[in-house]
Write a structure and sequence with these properties.
Blueprint lengths: L12 E4 L5 H11 L3 E6 L13 E2 L2 E2 L2 H4 L3 E5 L5 H12 L3 E4 L5 H4 L4 H7 L4 E6 L14 H7 L20 H23 L6 E6 H6 L3 H10 L16 E5 L5 E5 L3 H11 L13 H6 L1 H12 L4 H11 L3 E3 L3 H6 L1 H5 L3 E6 L3 E6 L23 H8 L4 H9 L4
Parallel strand pairs: 1-2, 1-6, 2-5, 6-7, 7-8
Antiparallel strand pairs: 3-4, 9-10, 10-11, 12-13
Helix pairs in contact: 1-7
């Protein structure tokens, strides 16, 4: 099969009825790989994501990277005409992604059961804080509270200080990956199985994080242990953590297996630790976590960052400098992998945004267009996709439906 610039999701149409980060990020991932994503936004207001910081000259800098490859259709679903336009779009759509509070679309007459009557093959992905069922289903849910509810926040920080939340919208982005993952699984089921059909998928913010907590669940169930706050990977492997080099650079080093520790010990010239009963297995080293980390910290202080990286790379020990965004911009590996790309923006000029990942050998994703201005594609979609005439479109404008 020849290489093509068309993504693997070419021909799949998605309605992005969501706002802010988690669900829209999932839609963007689909768009990066060829899906035709129509973002539905409120006229004159748009997605609040457009106005989230950081800013430059009043322009939100998140929007270009998080909303690329989409078309923007303004549509007010509070009007019956707006709902009718959505219903017409649904007839021509594979996937609809929404993140209204549980029950909202049902109140408006455009819930899953309503839309399924129009298009039985429709896949609807519903993103909320706590899911569509359960006693908390109707609660408002944002990423930071959901992170705390998942058990993630409780683990982070120092034992003698308050818990700390991630310094960016981690849960939203993880949930966005689940959105894209759910979409392609549902497409496969619908299109590749004889009994395949449309369905709805219930994605919650807190569950996206809780799914990664299996080490907590089994430990508490079997031993009753409540894991408390610790910095880094304390409690999993030793040595592990942040270390300061001779030239004042912070690096992170982890030995998650005894084989890795063996390589580290040889790099340090401490083969004696491999036969010492206090250190020769991870379970024994964990009993002396601070002591083992201290031995490594003292050794790391004798090396510059470059010397340490070269030596540990030779021995196959996982270590990395702790990068700032400035370091990332200057790193040759990021450049070689095209992790940062430059696009033209109508007001910002040239602006750099994250590249497309993962890398497909035959059907790679691409940035086909920059993030849209509000309502940029409204007339095109209504006229060419839904075949509305100019008079109808003008009337919808006058009534502020679009």
């Amino acid at each position: 099969m020849g290489r093509t610039r068309k993504g693997p999701l070419e021909g799949v149409r998605v309605i992005d009825l969501s706002t802010v980060i988690a669900a829209p990020f999932g839609a963007t991932l689909l768009a990066d790989f060829g899906a035709d994503v129509i973002k539905v936004e409120m006229p004159k207001k748009g997605d609040p994501l457009r106005n989230l910081g950081p800013y430059y000259n009043g322009e939100g800098l998140r929007w270009p990277g998080l909303s690329r490859n989409k078309k923007s259709l303004t549509l007010d679903l509070h009007h019956e005409e707006g709902k009718e336009i959505l219903r017409k779009l649904v007839k021509k759509t594979d996937i609809l992604i929404e993140n209204f509070r549980t029950g909202t679309l049902e109140k408006w007459g455009i819930g899953y059961q309503d839309l399924k009557k129009i298009n039985p093959d429709l896949i609807m992905i519903r993103v909320t804080g706590y899911g569509q069922t359960g006693p908390y289903a109707y609660k408002a849910g944002f990423g930071t509270p959901a992170t705390a509810f998942s058990g993630f926040t409780y683990l982070h920080g120092y034992p003698d200080r308050p818990p700390i939340s991630p310094s960016f919208s981690l849960t939203d982005y993880v949930t966005g990956i689940y959105v894209a993952f759910s979409a392609v699984m549902a497409l496969y089921h619908r299109d590749c199985h004889e009994d395949g059909t449309g369905q709805y998928i219930d994605v919650s913010l807190y569950e996206s994080m809780f799914r990664m907590m299996e080490f907590l669940v089994a430990d508490y169930d079997v031993t009753g242990n409540i894991k408390e706050r610790t910095p880094g990977l304390s409690g999993h492997s030793a040595p592990a953590g942040n270390f300061l080099t001779k030239d004042g650079s912070w690096v992170i080093l982890v030995t998650s297996s005894d084989k890795t520790f063996e390589r580290l010990a040889k790099a340090m010239g401490r083969e004696d630790m491999l036969t010492d009963e206090r250190y020769y297995t991870n379970s024994e080293r964990l009993k002396r976590f601070d002591e083992v980390n201290g031995i490594v910290a003292d050794w790391v202080k004798t090396k510059t960052k470059e010397e340490l990286q070269k030596l540990l790379d030779e021995y196959g020990v996982p270590m990395s400098p702790i990068y700032s965004i400035k370091d990332i911009f200057e790193d040759p590996h990021y450049k070689a992998r095209e992790n940062i790309v430059e696009v033209d923006h109508p007001r910002l000029g040239k602006v750099k945004i994250p590249g497309v990942v993962p890398k497909f050998s035959e059907t790679p994703g691409a940035i086909r267009q920059i993030a849209p201005d509000l309502g940029e594609h409204t007339e095109d979609i209504l006229k060419n996709l839904l075949e509305l005439d100019d008079e109808t479109i003008e009337r919808l404008k006058e009534k502020n439906v679009i």
